[in-house]
Write the structure tokens for this entry.
Amino acid sequence: MRNFISILVLSIILYSCDTKKDYTQYVDPFIGTGAHGHTYPGAQVPFGMVQLSPDTRNDESWDGCGGYHYSDSSIIGFSHTHLSGTGVSDYGDVLLMPITGDVNLYSGTSENPDAGYRSRFSHESERAEPGYYSVYLDDYKVKVELTSGNRVGYHKYTFEEAGKVKLLLDLIHRDPVIESEIRIVGNNRIEGKRRSKYWAGDQHLFFAMEISKPFESAKIFENKKEVKSERQAKGNQLQSLVFFDIFAGETIEIKVALSNVSIEGARKNLQAEAKEIDFEKARINAKESWSKSLGKIEVEGGSEKERRNFYTALYHSLLTPNVSQDVDGMYRGMDGKVHKAEGFTNYTVFSLWDTFRALHPLLTIIEPGRSGEFAQCLVQKSKEFGEYPMWELASNDTRCMIGYHAVSLIADAHVKRITNFSLEDAYTEMERTAMLDKRGLKAYRTLGYVPSNKSSQAVSKTLEYAYNDWCIAQVAKALGKTDRYSYYMNRASNYRNIYDSEVGFMRGKTDEHKWVPNFDPTAVGYNYTEGNSYQYSLFVPHDIPGVIDLLGGKKELEHWIDKLFATEMEHDLGDDTDVSGLIGQYAHGNEPSHHMAYLYNYAEAAWKTQKMVREIMATQYQDTPDGLCGNEDCGQMSAWYVLSAMGFYSDCPGKPVYAIGSPIFSKVKIHLDNRKTFTLTANNNSEKNKYIQSAKLNGEKLNVSFLSHADILEGGNLVLEMADTPNKEWGANLDLNVEFKAAPIAYLTESSDVFIEKFLVDIKCNDPEAEIYYTLDGSEPDKQSQQFKKPFKINKSSNLSFRTYKEGCEPGIVVKRRLTKQNSGNYLAEKVQKGLQYSYFEGIYRSVYDYELDEPVKTGIVPVPTLDVCLRKEWIGLDFKGLINIPKSGEYTFYMSSNDGCKLSINGEELFESDGRKTVTFGQQAQLQLEKGLHQIQMGFYQCSDNIDLVVEWEGPGIKRQAIPKRAFGHLEN
């Protein structure tokens, strides 16, 4: 009777939703589960902690990142955490599987499902909608239904045949387990924990599970062997089985609550969220939650396919970040400690390099309250971690990608009138992050760019740091910090320092101010992050007027973008590359290209933006499992579509302005949280009628191709008149203003800061009209300081500071260099032993800094840096420490290369580091003067996977480039 009533209520709700424009009907969660989209089809509520979904893969393959791939034909089970569209695998925690017949505790393989407990299935039996998933397991004759709440996942199993059945709980599934625990409580509850490592190096997850039907008995297994205790076990290879007698057609319901804090926290979450909530009620709640969220944007017109693409994209845009705290506010922080959230909600899964571009700007419109919570959450994470995370997952920084794009999210939220976070605290953490010395930032501050010979992905890092610094400058300005505003706006101009006017592209440069040779703008490689120079050279979203100046005018910008879309990719990119969705050199499957079609607006060719965004939407998005042209990337790919399909895009987050494109719908209504509605109407709109003829905003003519966030917030009306031929005059009278014009940076011709006897201070600037002023006592130079006229020598350590001045420009950035007179160490000969000390680590490392706090697996002495001490060839770190004997005073060049990452420090000074899994084909190198004698040396190395490699070389007075010989190394006796 209870089930009948629940079904009746659900039917009424579904009918009611249909009559109220139920947009969940257009969502297809299978879109993106094929090809390289890496999405999952399972059940979740908006931003929920639980992502309950089927797993068809438990390996680390590229297309196994979401746990499910549409090409598969067997299901391992149903786990409670998943990542939406990432490029690295993780999650898949707490896997359940209903089983009839004999049990094999191995999961089996796709090729041979009978080798394990997985079951075959057919896509014909699958159904997925927002908050609900079902499938029929062919091998076990069980219908599985899944739904979700915020912190609780709900299972419903209907058994076709009577007999003995088992419920398998597998805590081994997917990521390597550090420790785990299973507790059998009574005859209907299982509790436990799973601590694992992979992309998140240390993930804590606790669960409390309640089963509707009492089980008859239970067994726990460690490493496939039954343990003596039937009620509780600890280990790192745990599974359990509970046993039932079932009649034909019987159903069992299971509730699983999660916590990142404790088993007790999971219990509280279960009690608070799932008490007296059965499966059907949970499904109704999930449906209502999705109906409310998706209904914030109403569209009219367009095709059925376009509406399906749109609302599925909106659905994907509301999956992350995920709530990551218990109902009592307790959460696990990035310092590994348990905290209570005061005045904010803790979230996880911040794919910031991807999502700052479109996802978070979209959420400032439809989820402004959460956007402020995201901002405050990131501030707290920085306080706990010591810097803003780059890619936060389960309270770990995966160190994935580049930049510090939390500052973009925060600056964008602030400028869009979102105030439920502390801007002052946010700025403090911005400063701390931007002033770090790692990841090329020290060189970036002193040279005005990241040099290619000292850091991987140097061009991309320079460009993204410059944009990040512009974001910080906007916050500094809002807080009245005038000096810091000027400082960061100077840094925001650093993109100019890697523009080569001879080739017309952003290009790698060494610390000696020389261009990296053999330049090919189409080559994807070491200097760029998942892209090439075509895809990065226009990544200066904060200063398009400055880019226009570099290129020589608006027409040149237009021609540059034309060439981008017309130049074919000739290089073989392989099957699993991130550079996908190609239109010429434009790669929509990866993020650096996402703003480029909208840059035509700045070139006074808005009609070309209209043309290209329509082409991208039509060719790169389909309503099929393989309908995404690249990784979904936690909502970024979908948010681009949502914004573009509505007719505008945030080409520079941090500015409260959107570039207008070409909407695919005749009407769009955005229902704002302030109870106002913004309406965009496109009259005479169609597939062919994609060109804007004229526009009116609130009844007034709009002749520019930009829309302010304030106009949206006020609930205005934008009316576009569309036709099949372009109006090249509309949006063509654009007055671009340069926000801040800084004097060009000056630099020392010497790349090293150390010297033996004398140092030649030779300061240069590429602009002959700039004047250079300097001090030698560390004070900030101004026009009252000494003007640099010609090179001079110093013979003692000095704190050199210099800056440029140019008429019509703000003063240049102050460059500070600590010039140090070099001396070799005074070491007693009898204390110096041969060889280097090494420490070997095993763990999930994606940075040369990741293993520093770990305990080494082993230590010892080696004659030279070597990989022979490694016990395996992936997920390892090595640290070599000791002394290097310099045979003759003079200038030495050190070289290191590796597959994933390495660093070199001499006398405590870090000379370079490669961090980011980019093979160092160009070779990291650093030059410095060293006095004859012994000097401290430290070399770091880490390897994720693929081809392990480490090369350490030198050259100097009388020494040709060669591997450093063992006679040069030593260490002090303990």
In short: Residues 12-19 have pLDDT under 50 and may be disordered. The longest helix spans residues 458-478.
